[in-house]
Amino acid sequence: MIRIGILSGDNSSTESIKLIQQFKDFKITGIAQNTNEQDTIYQQYTIEDLVSNSDATYFNLGNLSVDLIQMGIKKSNHLFLKQFPKIQFGQIRQLSSLVDEAGSSILLFNPFVFQPELSKLIEQLNVPHLINIRVPLFETALEHQLQDLILFLVTLEKLECKKIEVFAFEGSHKSSLIHIHLYFPNGSLAEIHLGAMFSNSQSVMEFFPKDAKHTSFPMHQSVQKEKLLIEKNALIHFIRSIQNKPAISVSLSELELAISILDEIKKKLNYLGYSLLN
After folding, report:
1. One domain for residues 47 and 68
2. Measuring CA to CA, how many Å separate 108 from each of 99, 158, 174, 178, 183?
3. Mean pLDDT in residue range 169-184
4. What percent of the chain has pLDDT over 90?
5. What is the predicted pLDDT for the residue at 41?
6. Is residue 263 part of a domain?
7. CATH number at residue 172
8. Average pLDDT over every residue of 261-268
9. Which residues does 65 contact at the CB level (< 8 Å), separation at least 6?
């Protein structure tokens, strides 16, 4: 039995508790959040006490700090990060060293990696392959959107990017477009098309593997039930990693690769005069 504590924002703990309750491998030790004790049957803890009394901690905080992650690792907790903070390369490497020393598992949630159909594909996709992604461009959340997509790709490839090409322009009347090519050392290529003219219903992720059948997945996730299924799948892989069983890993190493690629893309967009990421 894995004792798991929940650290979440005011309005997010109820769904987290319901989801985690579905797993016989988890026992909820308590929660730490800013709410009244009457709102939950579970014992309230300070953050430090929560981590100290748990084997694993579920973090769902929009303002999650590196210090909190570091505290969890130092107490040999396994960490599930529903959201993760802005972080520098030096901090990632420091945390990675702590993880190795503590023998902990860290899973970074990604909505694409843990979509059940895509999880199965990750485990069996032939290389080399072409990946084609087309999604709407969300100007107010562009950096987060790109980071999620790139983190998915580096989790799939487990490699640094060999070459990055970017084409972009800003336009009126929903004509803004970003087109990215990512070349990997295994011969694979990922194409990302973000366009203000694309609708959610037009969102698609296509896979063209060598010597295998072409596969296509719709990308829109508007139904809450589907989002919970994705998170449930992520928790299944989190349990497997704690138990040292085969599991899909989205770790700090993949985050470091993703941030490196994103930084290069931002530089190229800036050179092209694209202002949305400035």
Report:
1. yes
2. 14, 15, 32, 26, 24
3. 90
4. 70
5. 55
6. yes
7. 3.30.360.10
8. 95
9. 85
Q: What is the pLDDT of residues 59-85, one digit of tens each?
A: 988 888 899 999 999 999 999 999 888
The answer to the question of residue 134 being in a domain is: yes
- In-domain check, residue 109: no
In the prediction, which pLDDT does 129 show?
97
Tokens of 234: 């992520």
Domain CATH code at residue 43: 3.40.50.720
**Residue 254 is assigned to a structural domain of this protein:** no
Q: Tokens for 94?
A: 């420091």
Do 147 and 52 reside in the same domain of the chain?
A: no
Instruction: Check whether residue 160 and residue 211 sit in a common domain.
Output: yes
Question: Which amino acid does the sequence have at 88?
Answer: Q
> Residue 63 burial by CB count (10 A; 0-12/13-18/19+): exposed, middle or buried?
exposed
**Max Cα distance, the chain (Å):** 58
SS (H, E, C) the chain: CEEEEEEECCCCHHHHHHHHCCCCCEEEEEEECCCCHHHCCCCECCHHHHHHCCCEEEEECCCCCHHHHHHHHHCCCEEEECCCCCCCHHHHHHHHHHHHHHCCCEEECCCCCCCHHHHHHHCCCCCCEEEEEEEECCHHHHHHHHHHHHHHHHHHHCCCCCEEEEEEECCCCCCCEEEEEEECCCCCEEEEEEECCCCHHHCEEEEEECCCCCEEEECCCCCHHHHHHHHHHHHHHHHHHHCCCCCCCCCHHHHHHHHHHHHHHHHHHHHCCCCCCC
Position 35 scores a pLDDT of 46
Give residue 20's domain range. 2-104
- Predicted confidence (pLDDT) at residue 237 exceeds the cutoff of 80: yes
